[in-house]
């Protein structure tokens, strides 16, 4: 079943272009998005929605955090993301016109399912599941649904489920923007073209594997690593850190880079690799100043930049150029590079990549 691959995780990382094109198949020839892709009642519900609440765990929650940046910027409606295991026990203030989105690869995560029950018990009826398993518990209990078509994900570390969740959340963003009269026909066409090109763009990131593999040697003997990002790439830094922790057992933390001097900078020395997600976006100049803070303390930077970022390699500054700059969808490309990094670090360390210690693929108990 593994074919030419050594692990399911590697296979699933490389399946991402296909997983994305399968998930996006319904827009392959479309000039306009139809809300019906989220369910028969979607058109009516999206018209009434005044805000979004996303509930999820782990990697799925980072997909939600990325979507928060998209939804508020493009659709212009408030969006909050909450860890399902917290929300389910919290006294929150329900809003009946809020869209509650549960995101789960498996659709069986106990806390996410319980969070959905909690939301419904509080009177929420506008519920949407984004899930990779059509017959799962979560999907059966929501008014709306979108099934990602990543195919079975065997590796405990989530990879293709995450990028397909992101593609689904971008479709949701566009539909909410349309319902909110925030999306011109031209903008819609341009975004759809970008989505359709995504599998090709991801393919080009996968071609960077040899350079990323070379970097992995520098991480394998370290005990700690820091991941930095800003804006919509902050959740990608979180996801990169989670991947490294899960499969290589290296302690990794992620920060929005502006937080560095509020504490974590104290950890930085020459033994601390610092991974930076640094595309040429509106936060880049701020991020460069943060990188300078790391360099000044002897920290070793590993920067995922792109052609427009103008970050130069030098002593202590390692730069890898992503093949394309991808605007709002750039998180999808950057996470693939971070998946490859953690995979190769784990290979050097010789850990059980597909079944890391202490973890289960589907967390069906609290
Ligand atoms: O099946 P789900 O998406 O609900 O799972 C949520 C988390 O358990 C999952 O994403 C976990 O964090 C992964 N092991 C991350 O790689």
UniProtKB/TrEMBL annotation:
It is found in: Cytoplasm. Its EC number is 2.6.1.16. GO terms for molecular function: glutamine-fructose-6-phosphate transaminase (isomerizing) activity. This is Glutamine--fructose-6-phosphate aminotransferase [isomerizing]. The chain holds residues 248 to 613 of 613 of the full protein. It catalyses: D-fructose 6-phosphate + L-glutamine = D-glucosamine 6-phosphate + L-glutamate. Keywords: Aminotransferase, Cytoplasm, Glutamine amidotransferase, Repeat, Transferase. It comes from the Bacteria. Catalyzes the first step in hexosamine metabolism, converting fructose-6P into glucosamine-6P using glutamine as a nitrogen source. It comes from Vreelandella piezotolerans. The keyword S-adenosyl-L-methionine does not apply. Homodimer. Residues 42-182, 215-356 form the SIS domain. The active site is at 361 (for fru-6p isomerization activity).
């Amino acid at each position: 079943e593994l074919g030419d691959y050594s692990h399911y995780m590697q296979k699933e990382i490389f399946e991402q272009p296909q997983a994305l094109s399968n998930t996006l198949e319904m827009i392959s020839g479309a000039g306009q998005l139809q809300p019906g892709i989220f369910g028969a009642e979607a058109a009516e519900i999206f018209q009434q929605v005044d805000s979004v609440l996303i509930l999820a765990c782990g990697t799925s929650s980072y997909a939600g955090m990325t979507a928060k940046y998209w939804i508020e910027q493009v659709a212009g409606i408030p969006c909050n993301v909450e860890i399902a295991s917290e929300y389910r026990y919290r006294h929150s203030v329900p809003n009946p016109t809020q869209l509650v989105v549960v995101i789960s690869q498996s659709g069986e995560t106990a806390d996410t399912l319980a969070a959905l029950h909690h939301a419904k018990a509080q009177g929420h009826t506008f519920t949407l599941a984004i899930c990779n398993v059509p017959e799962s518990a979560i999907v059966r209990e929501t008014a709306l649904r979108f099934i990602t078509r990543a195919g079975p994900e065997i590796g405990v570390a989530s990879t293709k489920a995450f990028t397909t969740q992101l593609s689904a959340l971008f479709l949701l963003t566009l539909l909410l923007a349309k319902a909110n009269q925030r999306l011109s026909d031209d903008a819609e066409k341009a975004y759809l073209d970008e989505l359709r090109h995504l599998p090709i763009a991801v393919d080009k990131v996968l071609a960077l594997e040899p350079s990323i593999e070379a970097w992995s040697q520098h991480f394998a003997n370290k005990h700690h690593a820091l991941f930095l990002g800003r804006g919509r790439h902050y959740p990608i830094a979180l996801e990169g850190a989670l991947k490294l922790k899960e499969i290589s057992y290296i302690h990794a933390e992620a920060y929005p880079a502006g937080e560095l001097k509020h504490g974590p900078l104290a950890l930085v020395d020459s033994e601390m690799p610092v991974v930076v997600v640094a595309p040429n976006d509106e936060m880049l100049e701020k991020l460069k100043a943060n990188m300078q803070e790391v360099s000044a303390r002897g920290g070793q930077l590993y920067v995922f930049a792109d052609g427009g970022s103008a970050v130069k390699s030098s002593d202590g500054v390692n730069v890898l150029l992503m093949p394309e700059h991808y605007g709002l969808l750039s998180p999808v490309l950057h996470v693939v590079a971070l998946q490859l990094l953690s995979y190769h670090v784990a290979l050097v360390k010789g850990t059980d990549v597909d079944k890391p210690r202490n973890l289960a693929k589907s967390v069906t108990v609290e």
